[in-house]
Each structure stands twice: as C-alpha cells, then as structure tokens.
Please model this.
Amino acid sequence: MDIPPEHLDWRTKGFWLPDGAMTAAQIVARRPGLFDGGFVWPLMALRRDAVIANIATMAAYSARHGLDYAPHAKTAMAPALIARQLDAGAWGVTVATVSQALVMRRLGVPRVFIANEVVDPTALRWLAGQSDWEVYFQVDSLAGVRAAASAVDATGGTLRVFAELGHHGGRTGVRTLNDLDAVARAAAAVDRIEVVGVTGYEGQLPDVDAVDAFLDQLAEGTKALAAAGLLAGPPMVSAGGSAWFDRVAARLAPAGAGRVILRSGATVSHDDGFYREKTPFRRIPQEGPLVAALEVWAQVTSTPEPGMAIVGMGKRDAPFDEGLPVVHDIRRDGVLRPVSGLTVTKLNDQHTYLAVDPDVEVVPGDLLRFGISHPCTAFDKWRAIPLIDEERRVVDVLYTYF
Model:
C-alpha cells in the first residue's frame, strides 16, 4: 500500500512532541520504550506479536475449513493491519460504509464487501463507476433495489449485490425466504445489477441453536436463488461475526450452498472482555487461541477517599459500550507488577473510577495497564497507535483512517 508518510506532532494524542514533528520511520529508528519520556498518558498501544499470532490463527482456521476470509476492517481501519491480513491470504475486506469503502479503494484493496444496504444516490453512482474494482454491497428491500437501479441507469455502470437475510429482532435483512426471493428477483431483473449470493449476520442471536437454525436458513435461501437462476455466477454466501464463526464453519461450509465468505473482524486484536468471553475458541480451544493485543496505559491522578481512585483515562480513550476496561498491572518507581483488587466501576469523558480493595495501595502517579473490552470501539479513539514488541519498545506506528 503506497501511502504518503504522515507526521506526528503536537496534535497526536499520547505522543509527546511539543515542538516539531516526526514521521513514524524517525520514531521507529530510535526504538523508544513506552516509559522513556516520549509518550504521555493515557496511551493505547498494540502488541505486535499478539497481532501477528491472531492474524495467523484466523488465516489458518479459514484455510482449514475451506472459508474465504474477508475480515471486517471497521474494527481498526488501519492500513498496516489490513495489509498484514491480505498478505496472510485474506480474500478481501469487509466495511460498513461507503466512506470506509473509499478508504479501501485508495489503499488499493482489491476486493471489498460493504456489509450494509446502500441507498444514497451519490454513493451508488460512485460504486457503479468502479468498473475495474471488485466491490459488493447488500440489498434487503425493494427500495434499495430501486435506488441501485437508478444509479446504473444514470451511469451505465454495473453493481454487484448480495441479497440479505435477517432474523426477528436483528438489525437488517429481510425476515423470510419469500421476501429474500422477492428482493433477489427485483434486483436480478435490472440490467447491470448482478446478484451474486446471499448474506446474513448471526451475531445478535442468543445461542448455538438459534445461530444454527439461521445459518441453515441462509444456506437454504442461497440454494433456492441459485436453483431459480437468479445468481450471476457461482453462488456465494457470507456470514460470521467474531462470536460464532465456528458455527459458520460447521453449518455453512458443509451445506454446499456456495463459496463461504467469513467476515469476523474483532479477531485481529481480540480483547480482555466481550470477545474473551464470546470467542468460539472457548468452545473449540484446539483450534485457537486468540490473544488480547490492545492495552491502555493511564495514571492514577487522585485518591480522594478510601476505596476509590481516579485515573486519567475516559470515554475518549477506551471503549465502554460492551464492558469496561480491566486493570492488569501497576508500574511504580520503574517496576511493573501484576495487580488485583482494582475494579473499574464507570467512565466519564476524561476520568475512570476505580474501586480499590482495602488491602491494595494506589497513589497518584501510579501507572496502570488496562485491557479493553470490545475492540470495535477502541481504535477509533486514536489517530496514531504505537506498535510495540514484548519489551514495549516501539517497532511501528499504526495510523487509523476513521
């Protein structure tokens, strides 16, 4: 990916550059440690070895089960991580919005799946004009088909779409196979709209039985559309968040519905909360594991009363929507050690509240290492993130393009 070098300066949170500017290459050439004075707190860092291991694990898992992997880039929107996943054999990447798709286009990503219906006329005309790029999106309504038809009529271009099946209470997708057929027929009837397969999202379902039933329905719908001659080529079927990808492998791959595209994205960094509990590798440990790669460092700034400490980290710095950060280590007087008895109870915009057990001492100035929960709302809080080795020396700087 040929990206012009960016500069870090006084605008870059966490990097202490009060005067002048540096490129990532200049910083990496010095291999600074996190605690050498070139950073201030809070700071989010990403462990290189954990990321490399996670990417290799998912690449091997996908290959073992005959899945094409299109990891959801919205998790990190980081060109360096996208490049690593493509180099490891990813079929393409998934995004949530046309703006994110534009980023992928400019980065030179060869194949992109937009996991949403697109109805904006400006965006659809742009997509229809990308004749030399393999890009797909979803349709789950006749209104969406009409919007896409208007775009191809206006531009003379071609659009490739997946018909989307959903489930009761889910976020998108038609609710029945009859409606899936109706949407696919409407799209296939439009010149220069190609229906390539069926997609769905199972991540909001509550248990294995519900997920399996939905995935079976997804396979059934794909086969029905193929049998009806509505698909423009060999059928494709896509699913897979980061909580149930084992069921995608178990139900969709053997079903023979078509080429299976897995979209799990939080796996690149994993976490110490939501996905630590939800990962399929808890059910199939022999096929994993994934390793938590993100850490946020922040200082205790106040101990205003017994049993409470305030940390200089808040909602602008760490995710809080699917679980709160957890404390792993404390660093005092240059010594790092594990710590227990410190529990995050809430976050404000710039402050974290800790409940402190009676036998634990924390004082202002202590530096704490936090693990995060839900990486999909972690990376977007940081424009630049140091990539660190196991000695916590900076080996690269990741830029995020949100």
Q: What stands out?
A: The chain has two domains: 7-48+291-399, 110-263. The first strand starts at residue 7 and ends at 8. The chain has a mean pLDDT of 97. The two ends are 17 Å apart (CA to CA).
